[in-house]
Structures are given as C-alpha cells and as structure tokens.
Amino acid sequence: MTRTGKDAASRILGVAVALFPPDRRDWGQAMRAELAALEDPAARRRFALGCLRVALTRPSTLRTLGYPALMLGALAAAVWWSGRIGYGPLRWAVLAAAAALLAFVWWGRRPGALGPVGPGRVPRLARACGCMLVCALVLAGAASVASNSNPGEQAAVGVPIYTAVSAGYLFAFLAVTSRATAHRGAVPARTLAVGGGVGGAAAAIWVAVLATARPMPTATAPLIALIAGAVIVAAVVAPTSRRASGRPLTGRAKDGLIAGLCAGASAALLAVESLTALATYGPAAMIPDLAPVALTRADDLAQSRSEIQDPYVAILLLGGLLAIALCLSAIRVRRPSP
C-alpha cells in the first residue's frame, strides 16, 4: 500500500526535489516513489529530511542559496552598522551606496558582460579575491566618512566618490572573470594568473617596505614606479607564456594589455588597503610625525595616522582608472573565429 497525500514529509520532499538541478530531476522522481512506499509517519519524515539534507549540501544548491543569503546578510549588516551615523542624509547615502554595490555583485551572476563567472578555479578565485578587496575598500570608506567632522560634505561628495571608485574596481573584477558568450571570448586563465600574481607581488614588496621602515615613508612616487613596473612586467610575461605562443598576434597583444591593467589595478588597490591597515592599527613607531603642532602626543599620533593616508588617494584614483580600462578591455575581448 502506498501513500500519495500531501503530508509534512511530502512537502519537505517537494522542497528537496525543487532544489535539484534539471539534470538530477530523475533523483527526485525516485525519491518520490520511495517515499510513497513508506507508511510509518516517522520513517517518512526521516526519509524526507535525509533527502532535503542531500539537496542542501550539493555545491549547486549552496551556490544558488548562498548568494541571496550573502547579499541579504551584507545589506542587513550595512543597515545595522549605519545606525551609528547620527546625520540622516549621510546614513542614507551610505546605505544607498551599499545597496548599489550589492546590486552590481548580483548583476555579475546574470548572463552578460559582467557574468556569470567563468569555469575553472582561476576565474572563481580571482573574482572572489576581487570582491573581497572591494568589500575592504567599502568598509574603509564607510568608516572614513562616518568619522569625518563634516558629514554634510561627506554625504554630498565623499560617499559618491568612494562609490564610483569602488564600482570601477568591482566592474573590472567582474568583467575580467566572466565566462565566454556567443559574441565575446573569456579572458584566458593564464592571463588572470599573471596579472593577479604580478600585482600581488608588487603590493607585497610595498607592504614589506612599509612594515620594515621606521617610520613609514610618506612619498608615493616609488609606489607609482612599482605599479608601472608591474604593468610592464605582466604585459610582457602574459603574451610570451608557453600556452599563449600558439595564439594570434592580436590575441597575445590583448592578453598582455589585460594582464598589465590587471596587475596595475590590483597592485594599487592592495597597496592602498595595506597602507590604510598599517596606518590605522600599526604601532606608533611606524607613524611619521605629520602634526608637530598638535597639543598632545595622542592628538599628534591620531592626526598623523590620518594624514599619512592622504597622498594615497591619488594612488586609489590611479588604480580606479586602470580598473576602468581593464573593464573596457575585458568586455571587448572577441571570441576567436572558428
């Protein structure tokens, strides 16, 4: 004797079956048939819950449900954190910026110029790292505007600038890691690896300089030279790799351009965020005395921690320009002719 009524076990199994991808719907049919053969209510519930556990732990299900949950969690965190901002227009500006950037991330999951992410570990890792870097930039920007003594100016100018720069970086990371379409080819994984690797190495060199100097240097000219060197190295290495040797000359030139822009943008962003972390949390011995007229040593240190970050705004904007160029170059990658 079989049961076909819509009891709790049937509803639970219905949810589990709905979570399976189309190529696994035959699993759902088999589960329904096995559930129909069970009579004991407890056994039916145990079986349905087991099927639901299997469906929820599948990687495809985790990706499907994880993104919405992550987006909602991030938005809820932004609403909670912004409660400490007393000036209403500034709080709403911060929330609008957070919602817009989260919408762009969601857009990156849809088929188009920014998504979805390409297959393979390199594009997925590059996109994840890029999104985390942008997240760190947004958090630092939000903390900066929230602590500023002129909230009206920050709501009208500071938040839009931070949002535009963050969106530029985000668009670049999404576009360069998106999968191929009928009209556009994907950026090769080796190009992403070279660009990200060279950019990360350049940023690591600068972090080593900052961490070992006492106090930290205030000039940014050496960093600009380091970023330029990263762009050149990546642009030269990517087209000459062994796997790229069989590609047409135009394809190799495009690989070099994208790798160079990727290296420059990632090096600039990593260097700025590293400096921000060291200036905010580093020991006092690392901080140069940039406010000698301060009334107390504590005021001198606090003002110096803030002022040492000012020259890096230009580095952040430079990286933003490289990111915009990277985004446009990645979008214009054409699928090779068969």
TrEMBL record:
Membrane spanning stretches: 65-83, 89-107, 128-147, 159-180, 192-213, 219-238, 258-281, 312-331
Which keywords accompany this UniProt record? Membrane, Transmembrane, Transmembrane helix
What protein is this chain from?
A: Uncharacterized protein
Q: Which source organism does the UniProt entry give? A: Actinospica robiniae DSM 44927
